[in-house]
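sorry to bug you again but im stuck and you know this stuff better than me. what follows is a protein written twice so to speak, once as letters and once as C-alpha cells for the fold. mainly i need to know what kind of three dimensional shape the backbone takes. anything you notice is useful, everything is just below:
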Amino acid sequence: MFSVSMLILAQVAASAAPASDIVVKAKRIDGALNACIARGCSSPDDIRMSIALAEAQFAAGDYNGAQRTLNAAIQRDKGAARTFPRMVAALYEASGTVGLHRGDMDAHRRAIIGKSDTLRNNLPANDMQVLLLGIELGDYYAERGDWREAERRYAAAEQGFSQEQQPRLAALTALRGAHMAFARDNLPLSESRLRAVEKMPAADEPTVAQMRAVLAARIAAKKGEQGGIDALLATLRTDPTTPPVLLHDVSAEPSAAQSAAENAKRFMEGNPAGPAPSEALSIQWADIGYMVASDGHVSEVDVLRGKGDLRWTAAYLKRIAKRRYAPLALPPGQPGVYRVDRLTWRAEHVVPIGSLIKRPAGVRQLQVLDLTKASGPPPS
C-alpha cells in the first residue's frame, strides 16, 4: 500500500545489465572494500563502499550476501553515529530494505529502530530527518496492517510539522491519512480527510495540490466516475524527470499456492507453516521493465531478468499493463519514460510447527522496489 521509505538500494542500475556483469562489479567492489577495511579507512568511505557492494549483491539476487555485507558494516561503523549520524542511518535503512525483501521482518524492524535511534540521539529534535521519522514509522505500521498505530504516528508527525512551521509537510502528512483510508476502502473518511487538507495553509502548494488531485482521481475511479477522472487528468501533468504518479492499479490474482497458504493462516490455530522443501521456499525475483506513455498508459511490459521459474510473474505483468499514471509533460518525440521494478517473491521468516529455528517458512508475499535511477527512454 504505502512505500516504506527505505530506498537506499534503489540506486541499483535499472538498465538490466546481465547478471554476470553485476557479479563482476560486486567482486570488484568487494576487493576495494576489503582493502579499505585493511587500511582502516574512515567510516564514510567504509559505509559508501559497503552500500555499493550490497547494491550490487542485491541486483544479482544475492539477498543474503547483501544482508551480511550491511550487518558487518553496521557492526564496524555504528560507533561513528555521533560524528556521522546520517551515514550510519543510511546503513540501517539499506539493511531494513534487504530484510524486508528477504522476509526477515525482525531484521527489518531492528533496522527501523536502529535508524530512528541513530537520528534521534545525534541530531536536533527539529532536524528534518528526525521530523520525517514520524512519517516513516507511520508508513511502516501501515505496511504491517497496524492502522491504529499508523494513525497515531501520522497525527504526531503532522503536529510536529505544524509546530515547526512546516505547513507543506503537515499537509502531505495529513494526505497520508486520507490515502490510508482510501486503501482500506473507507471512501467517506478518505473524502472527509481530503476536504480537511483543502482547508490547510499549504493546500495550494504545487506538490500538495498535485497529491490532492491524485487522490481525488483515485476516489473518482473507485466510484466509477469517469468524467471526474478525465477532468482531473486534463489539469494534472507531471514532470518526466520525477517518478510517474500512479493513479490506478489493480490487484493481482493470487496463485493457488498463495490462496492455500492464506487459508491455512486464517483457519488453523498457531503458526500453520510446516516443513517444506528448501527449493520451494527460496527467494525468487524478477526485474520488470515497462514504458509509461505521455497519456499515463503502460506498454512494453516485459521480464528483463530473474531467478528460477518466472511463471509466477504472469499475474503481475498483467497488473502492470493495466496501471494508469498521471499524464507526463514529455519533450516532442519522446514516446514515454522507461521504468524497472524489482519483484521479490519470498516467504516470511517464522518458526515452523515442530521446529525451534526461525527460517523462511511462512506465507509467500510479494515485495516491489523501484530500481529506476532516472526516467528516460528504454535502454538500447
